[in-house]
Amino acid sequence: MKIKRIVLGSDHAGFKLKERLKIYLLKRGFYVKDVGTFSNESCDYPEFAYLVAKDVSEGRYKRGILICKTGIGNSIVANRFKGVRAALCYNLKATQLSREHNDSNILVLGADFVSSNLAIRILNVWLNTPFLGGRHKRRLNKIKKIEDKICT
Fold it and tell me: Which residue, among 55, 114, 105, has the nearest Cα to 85 in the 3D structure?
């Protein structure tokens, strides 16, 4: 685990799971920037997805985590940012492949679809799985070219 700084955000539906993952990361020596939300009071997920994705896109953090009810909305917002590869993961295999093949830099979780125990297992796979490079690097370079065309 080379990454020791991570930015974390959720809406109200992901608040409880965010707090659980934050404690888990802190106990393992991570510096965690928590951009909110800070309660289970209703709020709008795009605000938090924006903050996490912006930090990753601008290079302040190499990795981030987003949590909402399904993870779909956070994925949509985060992937609008240049250089962000947000992966919505509900199982260990998809998580592993999101790192090996796609070099995902934001893990997105749907709180209604993963228990806290599964979320921790997913998080560990995501943190510890390296990008394979090779043919996958070629594909990421193609994504970068597309981003350069549409994000200028």
Answer: 105
Q: Which helix (H) or strand (E) holds 64?
A: strand 64-68
Helices (H), 28-87: 45-57, 72-78
* Domains of the chain, earliest start first: 5-150 (3.40.1400.10)
Contact partners, residue 19, CB within 8 Å, separation at least 6:
none
Long-range CB contacts (within 8 A, 24+) of 113-117: 113/70, 113/71, 114/17, 114/90, 116/16, 116/17, 116/20, 116/21
pLDDT in tens, 66-124: 999 999 999 999 999 999 999 999 999 999 999 999 999 999 999 999 999 999 999 99
- DSSP secondary structure code for residue 70 in this structure: S
What are the angstrom distances between the C-alpha of 31 and each of 127, 136, 148?
14, 29, 31
Query: At what angle are helices 116-128 and 15-27 packed, to 10 degrees?
Result: 50
Active site residues: 68, 101
Polymer length in residues for the chain: 152
